[in-house]
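Discussion board: Methods & Data

I've been asked by a reviewer to show the raw model output for two of the constructs in my manuscript, not just the figures. I'm not sure how much to include, so I'm pasting the format here to get opinions. Each protein appears as its amino acid sequence followed by a line of discrete structure tokens. Is this the kind of thing reviewers expect to see in a supplement, or should I convert it first? Here is construct A:
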Amino acid sequence: MNENKNRHEFLSQSGKVITACAQLGALSPTSYAAQSTVKSGKVNNAFKITDKHYYLDNVLLESGFVFEDKVVVHTLTELKTLEINNGKIVALHEKQLNQNNALPRYDAGGKLMLPAMRDMHIHLDKTFYGGPWRAPNRPEGTTIRDMIKLEQKLLSELQPYIQERAEKLIDLIQSKGTTIVRSHCNVEPTSGLKNLETLQTVLTRHQSSLTCEIVAFPQHGLLLSKSEDLMREAMQMGAHYVGGLDPTNVDGSMEKSLDAMFLIALDYGKGVDIHLHESNSAGMAAMNYMLETVEKTPQLKGKLTISHAFVLATLNEQQVDEIAERMAAQKVAVASTVPIGTLHMPLKQLRDKGVVVMTGTDSVIDHWSPYGLGDMLEKANLYAQLYIRPNEYTLSRALAIATGDVLPLNDKGEQMWPKVLDDASFVLVDASCSAEAVARISPRIATFHRGEMVWGSVGKVG
């Protein structure tokens, strides 16, 4: 614990440098081991896949761990040929044996196959990304209510660009291997339902290449901005989650605000995903009240996500254990950006207690923050730097926060993914194993969603 705290203090002071170095390392040709590639026939580079039924040759899959004195010292891999049909992995062949030569064949070039990344907290509907550089204007002492006032002025300026910039954000996250997303979307009187309508239009165009849940988000306060009726309309329009925001510091009435949020969710059979920034007694009161509500309302079990949950960083280990046990029992999830500032979130302790901990980008170059890179592998890297003693085993486990706990190998080194009939949703990475990919934030080569190549390219054999 002391080692992790000391590590965190160092990162807090030099987080920008570390992130920049990690990115540079990912681009360095000498930062990862060269992979031997087994190829058959003529390969044409930079090829897009449009077929529904095809082979993907020379895919590097993790197959086990090498142990020395019960310690994992190496990850075993093997080259396979995937047979993909209508979005599913229908067979795993030994290289190119027993293939139907009539099917088109593509070549992964020996790149490592990892599960698709999941960005479980992003705002696709409001960003400067895709437009001219613009740093946020947040003077020291700026409160969240100050930011709400600023945003109310900015939204009319941003709305004409929602569609164009959401498209560019989707391109960005897909280039990092992400095809599963949960996006918060402003629903409040200033925006009305326009952001939601525009985002749904964008997502309709990407329905084959991206799976996206939408959280209707009353950014200006559910009660403060009198957004309850709009939120109900958003549920009728197909939003998947009811959002909320700081029930005491913004809405001014913790119980009334949370009750309203949960009531909308219950009325429409939806989940809840609340932004909880409050890190004082108000945050703890809200956390307890939400857990009590879920504990006495069976319909809400497994349907609450607390985004940020900064108040957990103020608790001691025993207090975290106690609240984590309650959260795990009710399947309450936490969505964290893995912050490297002054708050040291107990993310590993939560995971060790069985709490589902997800990660996400949050802001990508907007009026809240300029730092979001849209890269879940970077988040796994930050998690590893903050919370673990790095070795082959722990680095491979750190990948789970980026993939929704889908890992190629289980803790014993048994191959768990991919399996026949799994969705063909994955990313090809220039790395020798998961541990290296996490440690080096290795370059992505191609991203697939349900069999469709949505970014990048591979070779074609023929």
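Construct B, same format:
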Amino acid sequence: MSGRKQFDVGEALDRAMRVFWQRGYADASLDALGSATGLGRGSLYGTFGSKDALFHQCLDRYAALYGARYEQAFAAHPGDPVRAVEAFFDVVLERIADPSVPAGCLVAQSAAQSATLTEESGTRVRGLLDLQHRRVRAALADSPADARTLDELATFVVAVNQSLAVLSRAGTPDAELRSVARLACATVADSLARAAVEGDAAS
């Protein structure tokens, strides 16, 4: 429309997402968000609502983008939980190595700054961690281990994933991050193999 500035909402969300990802919620000022998106405060509020509402939309966009990649990695290895976890970490490490996005993970960054979030935003971040746990737990389900062991392994994998994000922000070299991921996969493999042996012995 003549006389009105046109912009791509998806592109603006991507740029805002990078601000939250890089700076964290508390330090993602409206000025920084406006500078990144090219929108004034009025346009930001008019398009996305409050800062909190914009943050929620950025979380949703991040979760949709990377969640789809995680699901594809898990789905590519049905019946092979160890390989599925390896594929999951491959996606994580690819994201970390991608120079076009900030270091770390938006969810990990937000979780680390939970004290600065509103109650609703904190609940959303916790929900994304829970969703990640459910994905990993589902990938591990096709194994002889008991439910408690699988729950613990899923928590372990999520914890390693979040640790990789934190380490990457601290500048840990890619080779060291990959070593952590390999050890995590070996731990999963050993735990599942031990569960299989114990199951055979009990039968």
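Answer (T.O., handling editor elsewhere):
This is acceptable in a supplement if you add a one-line summary per construct. For B, something like: Residues 79 and 142 are 6 Å apart (CA to CA).
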